[in-house]
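Blackboard transcription, Thursday session:
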Amino acid sequence: MAGSKFAYVKKFELPDALLPNMFMVFRLDGHSFHRFSDQHGFTKPNDLRALQLMDHAAKSVMEEYKDISLAFGESDEYSFLLRKSTALYNRRQAKIVSTLTSLFTSCYVFHWPKYFPDLPLQYPPSFDGRIVLYPSQQEVRDYFAWRQADTHINNLYNTVFWALVQQGGQTTTEAHATLRGTISKDKHEILFSRFEINYDKIDPRYRKGSVLVRVETPEAPALDSSAQVDVLSTIPDDSSKRKKARAVRTHLELLHCDLIRDEFWDKYAHLLEQHIVI
Amino acid sequence: MAGSKFAYVKKFELPDALLPNMFMVFRLDGHSFHRFSDQHGFTKPNDLRALQLMDHAAKSVMEEYKDISLAFGESDEYSFLLRKSTALYNRRQAKIVSTLTSLFTSCYVFHWPKYFPDLPLQYPPSFDGRIVLYPSQQEVRDYFAWRQADTHINNLYNTVFWALVQQGGQTTTEAHATLRGTISKDKHEILFSRFEINYDKIDPRYRKGSVLVRVETPEAPALDSSAQVDVLSTIPDDSSKRKKARAVRTHLELLHCDLIRDEFWDKYAHLLEQHIVI
Amino acid sequence: MAGSKFAYVKKFELPDALLPNMFMVFRLDGHSFHRFSDQHGFTKPNDLRALQLMDHAAKSVMEEYKDISLAFGESDEYSFLLRKSTALYNRRQAKIVSTLTSLFTSCYVFHWPKYFPDLPLQYPPSFDGRIVLYPSQQEVRDYFAWRQADTHINNLYNTVFWALVQQGGQTTTEAHATLRGTISKDKHEILFSRFEINYDKIDPRYRKGSVLVRVETPEAPALDSSAQVDVLSTIPDDSSKRKKARAVRTHLELLHCDLIRDEFWDKYAHLLEQHIVI
Amino acid sequence: MAGSKFAYVKKFELPDALLPNMFMVFRLDGHSFHRFSDQHGFTKPNDLRALQLMDHAAKSVMEEYKDISLAFGESDEYSFLLRKSTALYNRRQAKIVSTLTSLFTSCYVFHWPKYFPDLPLQYPPSFDGRIVLYPSQQEVRDYFAWRQADTHINNLYNTVFWALVQQGGQTTTEAHATLRGTISKDKHEILFSRFEINYDKIDPRYRKGSVLVRVETPEAPALDSSAQVDVLSTIPDDSSKRKKARAVRTHLELLHCDLIRDEFWDKYAHLLEQHIVI
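(Written on the board underneath:)
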């Protein structure tokens, strides 16, 4: 074969499978979205259209990859939880990272006109992605709590900041100075006393971010995709107590709820379970 | 800080810097492009518009990332060579793989209407990417030779196959059967004797693939981007003989030429050099 | 400094820290111990002195490295369990693997004369080591069960094999032939009917291997080493519920007991716990 | 099989092959050798017996592993260069690191009595090891230059320091104070003017460290080990210009020479070549 004497270069592609039975969190972030949001005139502190587009892209990714059970988005970032036992692309790291980042990006550009009908995309945006492995449910819960706590901190700051600028007439430099050294309580107070804004009444989408959960569709009449069955048969989760895989029909729900307290995790306990296919 | 008790989850993000002073080849491939090309009615054996769109996306990536000196594309894949001494994203693997894949994808979707003005994109396409490290110039040359030899083999097969089907009236099953066991010479012969096609006269774009080279623009009047200067100052290439970095203006040329023989590498020797900023 | 122009070569030492909060199992195996045991005339099927020397070396390693809570040995291999939260050498893989293998080897050679007083070591033996990460207690239990099941299978085979050779007068080729296709029950039967050996009465050291457990010494009067306290303060195990580290005095017990059933793990539950320093 | 339900734990052993065609440097260091040298009363600034024992252990390792072409030792550390094309243990990192560290350690303990006939080893010493990959000859040369420059700096300091203490009657604190801020020239001057020691006349073993080179034995009458032939046939070094492997007889030479200037590398150019089996 013509190419055979060059084929040795394939030997430099080393395997990069991720450890089995670990939760995978895939997180992506917008690349230079400060500039991107400026160029497209995103509303401050939050642009509803841009957030809805992020949610749409995330939903599309979850519809394509059934092993993602949960996702959380805020601003220009989104985190996805893959089931502990996923055999997606044989758990090859570069393949998973690049494919998921690519599909999200593609959906973002593809669906842009739906959310910005009068504003053409000025240039192609990009995202970067990474995978982090977690051994147990506790760490996964704490990961999502960490992101939501971050959402809270950023959104509270931005809400007051832009109120000072847009309604209070401060320059951005003045607004930063006003906020320097303030704690959460101070910021609530500024919002309420100066702008009559009760932060806790602000749309939970902005305060809590977006939560996409995969839930079982009742009365599932037929078998779901073969992909899920494959997954289960590839990597045994433990020695013996393997439940029979059930292939069920699922759908996605978009929530803007608390991820830190137990309530969510109690209600959606199946999201962290490894055996149940949902 | 509200999130501080959860911040320990960041400790699970392990460093993934790639070894210094190694050539990096970043290759991406279309995900399920067999289906994608069917759905969009790509011309067989080659769709000029689709190939030009790939080239456009690759060019955009190279315009953004100056440390890419060379790229080669065929069909739905593209390979990019990063300079040995690149400090792009501190050589973090997931960051580079995901960002480059993302930008390419974004450009592909963004520029689609230019190449398919009458055919709206049916659904968002995606790509997967990987990075392979090579220690020396010889392996890099052999890598690109490997891809171009692959282009030749595939294109020759596809050209005969679709001639048999489109002009010869064979079914695809019959065409595969006709080609079974044939060697290169036989395929040339079939093309010529049955269809009066001289394979060597076919557009070199299809026979050789697309080569994007970065070349220095003569009379560069001013300094180029600061990014290139940064790169050079971060990772010393050897102990002492460091040449003074020259920040020069460059542009990209699209070629459809041979990458296997010495001629190309002699002419564009700077592409494999580590010290010269181009 | 004289060496400074060469110091860039240090940049090629990439970080290799292992993921936090994972159980580490370190296993080592004798290198070419078939030859080694022949050269030193080890008794077949088991050489008590050689096994005791392995146990001694393993015990010395555990005395030096308090983060090892459990070890299991059979034949020329030994497995060590490091606590999930260990910060030993900042969890650097090569450092841990090489140091533990080195110390075990050193102890083996150093203590050889105690167990083979009349037989000088003929040449320096060596071992190879590796680390495997496990996310949960279940996998750690199954790992040790796997090794002990292996011990059982090998020892039963070897016991019958050497009985056939040593007492039954078979050649080794004949003995292998006799055992071909036999299942466990058959081997018990051969032992009992031909050699009046009740396998279940054989020294549990041979049937079960060696188990080294770290247990708390009652009435510990004083603080133990600072190393353990360091460990706990370095890598937080979870977000908030951190127990106060107790530095306690521990000692090692050598057992030859079942590791597969629950009894052992119920009794020594602390071995898999991450918070308790023992 | 009894163990089969536990065998899934093997899936957690991920591959760890090192990149092909890269030079491997394996370096090991004594673990807590400050304490070790104190306990065994090593002569200061250099203990000839201890250094000879290190050399002996290093030589044994090179006799066992023919793919090591060069080694350099100083104090309680030793670096080994493996041929670029070595297929040793399929280039598995943990296997190579642990085995080489283990064998060196074993030889050190085993041969101790030859060098310290009247001083029994007080406790088992240990070493840690690591592997660093280098893409080109230049970096390998610079690596060894870096280690020898380090040897020079340390030995010059120690020589003056111990002269001040042993002959000059200073306390160690005073000696450190005397040397604070001095440059190389000052140290030479102190040695010469106060103690009539011409540093350049000191045994090159102490000034230059130990260099072990593998050289071809003239008139080699027969084939060497099969291992070397295996190596060459496993990993092709380049596309086409592969020289025929010659299996030749080699031996080791111990030198105490300069590794920084070209002379050494010109004379022993074969040490860095990948094709020649020596």
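Lecturer's comment: Residues 20-137+209-272 of chain A form a domain with the Alpha-Beta Plaits fold (CATH 3.30.70.3000).
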